[in-house]
Write a structure and sequence with these properties.
Structural class: alpha/beta
CATH architecture of the largest domain: 3-Layer(bba) Sandwich
Largest sheet: 6 strands, parallel
Strand order of the largest sheet: 7-4-3-2-9-22
Number of helices: 7
Number of domains: 2
Radius of gyration: 22 Å
CATH class of the largest domain: Alpha Beta
Order of helices and strands: EEHEHEEEEEEEEHEHEHEEEEEEHEEEH
Bound molecules: flavin-adenine dinucleotide, iron/sulfur cluster
CATH topology of the largest domain: FAD/NAD(P)-binding domain
Strand content: 25-35%
């Protein structure tokens, strides 16, 4: 049996914001692209985020996904297959020959694209790896009690709770909420030394949403410092400091107390304090994509010193976009997707020029 043939100038692996932005950018330059998404639906991590607007837009970036999906759905140069995985790849001619296999289908979501129904072979002149990064699994930081201590949640779990309306005056109404920053980032004991760039921002936005839903609640932000990547927090911090309690300390542990989780921390030069909360949120960071090594091997892409994918020094025609290349916000990943698209478009144009003289 022969495979279906799906040739395209540019193959994009990953249908999160970076992959979608790359495809939209290419289409606007008149270059066709095929997105291959492993999951049954497009969107990547952003599809899990809810709107964080309180009185005004919180500039979380989440609604950029809807805009990109709508654009991708209407641009005829873009083809999208979901539930599909690249299982083999080899350089061929000027580009890459990639073998694709359908993945077991979950619930097919709304949005553009159709599931890959059979094995296929795809030839492309350029490949963009936009497979995203992995959120740190908080179970890997056992002393913070995730999965063991009732009332301890990861930030992704809190996202889901907010999206489902699980917090509010008529739902779960914690009186005291703690955010613990840098979980799985800037941590020598885990060998994860990088700053994940996005978690100060998302935690402050979620803290503000909780204060909006539950004005009587007290929100504490345990942090080393507040990172300002891509956003002028300086302007907003005075107001945020009125809404939340900022504690500059990295807690030692979270344990089960009588009334809920207890956080042990020490302020500089002082004795350790044990304080009880109703809800403790672990602000998990972003790490290299799962399977970075396998993908790197498939397409000859290298990894940087932290394990993120890099196109530097790799084979011609392979580019990396978005959080796969390092922690990035949604807006930064969209810009990065556009950059990879411009590089891929230049390659397609120069190959075409070479062919046609
Ligand atoms: C807890 C948390 C909260 C965050 N909150 C915010 C926020 O409020 N604002 C903000 O700006 N940023 C936030 N971020 C960062 C944001 O998630 C990233 O900037 C963004 O998701 C990066 O987009 P991406 O397209 O590079 O990757 P992703 O969104 O991860 O998309 C990658 C896509 O590739 C697919 N894929 C993976 N492997 C393969 C493969 N081998 N083949 C095909 N497809 C594959 C995945 O299924 C996924 O759809 C947060 C991150 C975390 C962890
Ligand atoms: S950027 Fe975020 S907060 Fe602002 S409207 Fe969009 S989803 Fe809501
Ligand atoms: S963005 Fe903030 S919480 Fe995240 S790793 Fe950097 S300093 Fe820590």
């Amino acid at each position: 049996m022969t495979n279906a043939q799906l040739d395209t100038p540019v193959l994009i692996l990953g249908g999160g914001v970076a992959g979608l932005a790359a495809a939209v950018d290419l289409a606007r330059r008149g270059v066709a692209a095929t997105i291959i998404e492993r999951e049954p639906r497009l969107g990547g991590r952003a599809s899990q985020f809810c709107c964080k607007a309180t009185e005004a837009c919180a500039r979380c970036g989440a609604c950029r996904l809807g805009e990109l999906m709508a654009q991708a759905a209407h641009l005829p140069q873009i083809t999208i297959y979901t539930a599909a995985l690249a299982v083999a790849a080899q350089p061929r001619g000027d580009g890459w020959q990639v073998e694709l296999a359908p993945q077991p289908n979950g619930e097919i979501g709304p949005g553009p694209g159709r599931p890959l129904s059979e094995r296929a072979t795809l030839n492309a002149q350029a490949v963009i790896l936009a497979v995203g990064g992995e959120a740190f699994n908080p179970a890997g930081k056992t002393r913070f009690g995730h999965g063991r201590v009732e009332g301890v949640f990861s930030a992704l779990e809190l996202e889901a709770m907010l999206a489902q309306g699980a917090l509010g005056p008529k739902a779960m109404a914690p009186a005291k909420v703690a955010f613990i920053q840098c979980v799985g980032s800037r941590d020598a004991s885990l060998g994860r030394l990088w700053c994940s760039r996005v978690c100060c921002g998302y935690a402050l936005r979620m803290g503000r949403v909780i204060r909006g839903l539950l004005p009587e609640s007290e929100v504490t932000f345990f942090h080393m410092d507040v990172q300002d990547y891509g956003r002028a927090w300086e302007e907003e911090l005075p107001e945020l400091r009125k809404q939340m309690r900022f504690v500059r300390a990295m807690p030692g542990e979270v344990t089960a107390g009588d009334g809920g989780p207890e956080v042990t921390y020490a302020l500089a030069g002082e004795q350790a304090i044990k304080e009880g909360f109703d809800l403790v949120v672990l602000s998990v960071g972003l790490g290299p994509p799962n399977g970075a090594s396998a993908l790197g091997e498939l397409f000859g892409a290298a990894k940087d010193s932290d394990g993120f994918l890099t196109a530097d020094g790799g084979p011609a025609g392979v580019f990396v976009a978005g959080a796969a290349a390092g922690p990035r916000s949604l807006n930064e990943s969209i810009v990065h997707g556009g950059l990879a698209a411009s590089q891929a478009a230049s390659r397609v144009a120069s190959l075409s020029e070479a062919r046609h003289g």
